[in-house]
Design brief:
Layout: H1 11-21, H2 24-34
């Protein structure tokens, strides 16, 4: 799996050791650094009713960046 992100297969054991060495305090420090109330984005996802069974719906392609919608 690590080869998919540019790391060799020999890195697996070291990777796990490094991940397990991260402390809760280090995670909290990173969260405090990057999660800021002044830069909060909030979204509400409201389900919509559909007119046909899900099994009959066809997937729609994602819009391309910069393309008009």
């Amino acid at each position: 799996m690590l080869e998919t992100v540019g790391l060799g297969w020999k890195t697996t054991e070291q990777y796990e050791q490094h991940i397990r060495a991260v402390t809760p305090a280090e995670i909290q420090a990173a969260a405090n650094l990057y999660f800021d109330e002044d830069r909060l984005t909030e979204a509400r996802l409201i389900p919509q009713k559909i007119s046909q069974p899900i099994s009959q719906l066809k997937p729609q392609p994602a819009p391309q960046a910069g393309a008009p919608q």
